[in-house]
Amino acid sequence: xxxxxxxxxxxxxxxxxxxxxxxxxxxxxxxxxxxxxxxxxxxxxxxxxxxxxxxxxxxxxxxxxxxxxxxxxxxxxxxxxxxxxxxxxxxxxxxxxxxxxxxxxxxxxxxxxxxxxxxxxx
Length: 122
Fold this sequence. Notes:
This protein has helices spanning 16-41, 43-78, 80-97, 99-121, and strands spanning 3-5, 11-13. It is built from four helices and two strands. The longest helix is centred in the middle third of the chain and has 36 residues, at 43-78. Strand 1 and strand 2 form a beta hairpin. By secondary structure, the protein is mainly alpha-helical. 84% of the residues lie in helices and 5% in strands. The N and C termini lie far apart (94 Å).
């Protein structure tokens, strides 16, 4: 099997079967690339997917909150002190595990307090 020099300086295989195989592989790779580019360029479709994903996450979070609220209500009715202790532990764990939203919320509270104090002084 010998190779022949092509115009681009690359050796092309002399065997037509090998050449056909390379062409098929190149076509498949090109098809994947075009598909990926088309997906990237489809901003409307990607935005729609993101919105649907966000809606699903919100629905799941709302359902989770409902279940937690119902459980907390039952716990408060059965053992108020224990329920408050568990809720405080969960809150503490939440702050430790994910402090950024709590810090932002605290900053808003401080800002609101400062604005209220400023209005009262004027």
